[in-house]
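Case 223 in the screening queue. Each case pairs one protein sequence with one candidate compound; here the compound is S-adenosylmethionine. For every case the pipeline is the same: read the inputs, emit a complex structure as tokens, and attach any notable structural observations.

Predict complex for case 223.
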Amino acid sequence: MRLRNVKGSRERIEACPFTFNEDDGSALYTNKGKWNEIFKNDNPIHIEIGMGKGQFITELALKNPNINYIGIEKFSSVLIRAIEKRELKESEGVNLSNLLFIRMDAEHLPDVFDQGEIGFIYLNFSDPWPKDRHAKRRLTSPQFLNRYQKVMDKAAKIQFKTDNVDLFNYSLESLNESSWTVEEVTFDLHQSSYLEGNIMTEYEAKFVSEGKPICRLLALQPN
Ligand SMILES: C[S@@+](CC[C@H](N)C(=O)[O-])C[C@H]1O[C@@H](n2cnc3c(N)ncnc32)[C@H](O)[C@@H]1O
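Case 223 output:
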């Protein structure tokens, strides 16, 4: 998702107290291993990579106040919409102190989080990068799975949802190649027993309204 440049978004992100930015590398990277101090509690930290406009992670944070959430997005023009959602909720008196954002490319995850710091990773409707020469940019490529292992705790899992069957099949192969255990898999989430408790993302709501099936998997890293 890339929106037209939103005027002033970079400056607003810089000034935002609950958003960290890779352009201000020092502040972001010195938090490595100290994210629980930023949240001021010992609750587990779950992240969504490529959160887009933040609907999914904001709803999760509201539902689970005892889990800390960090939404990661590489484009300022998209991230600003998630910031606005959180600001709106807070102006209505809702506490969202368990939700932070980072503007960065997820390839820098191991520079930002320590081994064991992350308890769960959500990947929702990740960009497919259909050309073979771009395969390593897919968020379920072996290269990305390796980065996730550098920050996840032993029991942490990833959940991946997509409408793109080719990307889903590629992801199953990539997980297998990297010796991950796929614990749950469906090619039609909304007709499956895994639907209970599902929170829809912006992309998911659109695809579901068009009658497209949604693929979903849950996977555990190797020991
Ligand atoms: C297709 S959108 C899906 C947005 C949202 N997850 C949803 O389901 O509605 C994918 C998002 O992932 C972001 N993204 C893609 N690659 C990324 C990366 N390497 N690091 C951080 N964000 C990334 C894109 O900028 C885009 O906003």
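Case 223 observations:
- The first helix runs from residue 9 to 15.
- Residues 88 and 94 are 9 Å apart (CA to CA).
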